[in-house]
Amino acid sequence: MPLIDVTLVAGRTPEELRTLISRLTDAAEEAIGAPRPSIRVILREVPAAHWAAGDVTIEERNQE
Questions:
Q1: Molecular function terms in GO for this entry (predicted)?
Q2: What are the φ and ψ backbone dihedral angles of 58, each rounded to 5 degrees?
């Protein structure tokens, strides 16, 4: 049972997230032959203020 766990910055539409789930499921099925019903996808959305690189949050970077 493959588990695909994705963390991304919040802000995408429900349609974009649904498309991502579908394409990840397709990729796992095609790449490793996993049975579709056994593929699990978890999307974790993190607020831009809680994600930083080089001591600058994405929120701060977007405000520049």
A1: isomerase activity
A2: -60, -40
Please say whether the beta carbons of 41 and 2 come within 8 A.
no
41 vs 26: CA distance, rounded Å = 11
Q: Is the pTM of this model over 0.70?
A: yes
Name the E strands within 1-64: 3-9, 40-46, 52-53, 56-57
CATH 3.30.429.10 fits 3-63, yes or no: yes
Q: Which are the catalytic amino acids?
A: 2
Each residue of 10-41: pLDDT tens digit?
999 999 999 999 999 999 999 999 999 999 99
Q: 52: which strand partners?
A: 57
Nearest to 48 by CA among 35, 38, 60: 60
